[in-house]
Amino acid sequence: MTDSALHPADRLALARKATADAGLDVMLVSPGADLRYLTGYQALPLERLTCLVVPATADAFLVVPNLERPAALASPAGALGIDIVGFGETDDAYALIARRIPVGAIRFAVDNHMWAEKLLAFQAALPAAQPVLAGDVLSELRIRKNTAEVAALRQAGAAIDRVHRRMGEWLRPGRTEREVAKDIADAIVEAGHERVDFVIVASGPNGASPHHEVSDRVIHSGDPVVVDIGGTTADGYCSDSTRTYAVGEPPAAFRELYEVLLRAQTAQTEAVRPGVTSEELDAIGRDIITDAGYGEHFIHRTGHGIGLETHEEPYIVAGGKRALEPGMAFSIEPGIYLPGTFGARIEDIAVCTESGGERLNLTGRDLVVLPG
Ligand code: ZN
Ligand code: ZN
Fold it and tell me: Quick one: 8-142 is in which CATH superfamily?
């Protein structure tokens, strides 16, 4: 995909074509990453309807509450040359859209995150039409990042790396996970993110739960600690990186496990190139972990796409037949989790390029043993 295709005005043209190609009559996009991608408008998700309407055979238009219209006009959407239609507090926005949709529309698609109450209102306003999900159509537009998007992801990756490099300031025996997480959250914003998306500090046995967030557990000397953190930068792109630390010398069994994980994650990041399928990339790490006897303890997929959302297409998962293409950005984050004992995960964001893969997280992957 060429860069010129990614100006929002061009994105709208592509969305219209994709709507037609998918056999849809109209696509309805509510506030969220899809709307931001297509228009540049970072709309508030409200009980009042905001909706981009993309008919297959007519110009797109944006419907917003009157009180949001100034903000919509001031956003990049205001420069797209599309109709930005306001409605009053007592108007029926769904009926307004139904009247403007080309006559005879029978298949409409909604973005996958549209609130159920809004979908049901559209169904009531378009009783003869059948709703489907627009997720596949929209993710196909977003799945290959252009140069500017990769640069934004690179910048987000560098920002979260700066936080990981400071971990020794916060992670030490006697502090609780919650105390450490608060310091990390502050640093995520200081490092150049607009927003903190998540902070996982999983010490000792808590590290065996991949999505443990934080608790009041006190970190002890010798604990392995899984730290998985991410945020969103001002231009909307997300970071997500995991490193597992040891606070003081960890048990020998942990070092063994970590070496296996490091081999798996390294092999996977080195295998990124166009044509490799999602399931092949997943298997490269999973086989190493399984051969070392930890297969049943790698309990999730290898990774997820990342961009304007932390989790989006492509997913790197067993059974995933999709081949990597230049511009695809995704996490590579194998983990090994021993219930009741400890766990470890290493996560980098990688971008598939014409010649291989580029890692966007560049902090060291060898086990960092902090003073403990
Ligand atoms: Zn991730
Ligand atoms: Zn993560």
Answer: Creatinase/prolidase N-terminal domain (3.40.350.10)
